[in-house]
Design brief:
Blueprint: H1 21-28, H2 32-38, H3 53-60, E1 69-74, H4 80-89, E2 94-100, E3 117-121, H5 127-137, E4 140-145, H6 151-161, E5 165-174, H7 193-200, H8 206-209, E6 230-236, E7 239-244
Parallel strand pairs: 1-2, 1-4, 2-3, 4-5
Antiparallel strand pairs: 5-7, 6-7
Helix pairs in contact: 2-4, 5-6
Length: about 260
């Protein structure tokens, strides 16, 4: 396909299951997002996604079908991702805000009306800037962090923006693979955004920690408090999906009275 570049991050020609990588790619692209990506040509603004994100976005965004959607995207870069969301949701149903530190990205505003899309220039690690953007453009149904991929920036952005996602909304971090790469792990080379979100998984069990049977010997990290309530955390290769909102209630249900050990 002209205007496309595809790289497989493995020198092998087949996956462990004996399925060719071409077959995997075809499966990843067999959805509306794949159709939109394939329609790009040499004159289309560049959008770069790991192919396995596409069916996940198809699944996650199904609940917004025919509804107005307010999206904040950290990382504008070449400008092509706006096209992806616009063609999926429909231009009239999408209210998109892009954040990027590169002032050249503001050129995209020449093609947009502020009600449909707006690029704001600033750092994703600047809480004052993010608060200003969220005040003007939130609350958001979806926040996507496809920004610097610096672990400390990912964590800082989540701490600033998580509370600006609607209950039932999504906070998605892309390209978490950078946590393992040189130059993305923080000044000390020990910071890791994935580890931060793994730690927040303890908060999903807050009802257990508040129960009368709770151990007195819990570690501080087991009492992690997220910046906003999280209902569920999904982790895929290179992708973290936080479903925002109060954790589901733990309701213990006993059915039947007999026991084999009685």
């Amino acid at each position: 396909m002209k205007g496309h570049s595809i790289e497989v991050w493995n020198n092998a020609t087949r996956s462990d299951e004996g399925i060719s990588f071409q077959n995997h790619f075809d499966a990843f692209a067999a959805n509306k997002f794949g159709q939109i990506m394939k329609s790009a040509g040499v004159e289309t603004l560049n959008c770069m996604k790991l192919a396995h994100y596409l069916p996940e976005y198809q699944r996650l965004f199904a609940k917004f079908d025919n509804s107005r959607v307010n999206i904040l995207e950290i990382g504008v870069q070449h400008g092509g991702s706006y096209r992806l969301w616009k063609n999926f949701f429909g231009e009239d149903l999408l209210r998109w805000t892009g954040v990027d530190i590169n002032e050249k990205c503001l050129a995209l505003n020449n093609q947009l009306t502020s009600e449909k899309g707006l690029v704001c220039c600033g750092s994703q690690a600047d809480p004052v800037f993010l608060e200003d953007v969220a005040t003007q453009r939130g609350k958001f149904d979806v926040i996507i962090d496809d920004g610097s991929h610096q672990s400390e920036h990912i964590i800082a952005s989540f701490k600033s923006l998580a509370r600006h996602v609607k209950d039932g909304g999504l906070y998605i971090v892309e390209d978490v693979h950078a946590c393992y790469w040189k130059g993305f792990r923080g000044d000390s080379d020990s910071s890791n955004a994935l580890s931060y979100f793994l730690g927040l998984a303890h908060s999903l069990n807050v009802q257990a920690t508040l129960h009368e049977r709770c151990s007195k010997n819990l570690r501080p990290d087991e009492l992690a408090t997220p910046p906003a309530l999280i209902q569920k955390i999904e982790m895929l290769p290179s992708m973290i999906i936080c479903h925002m909102g109060a954790p589901l209630p733990m309701i213990e249900w006993k059915a039947g009275m007999k026991s084999v050990i009685a």
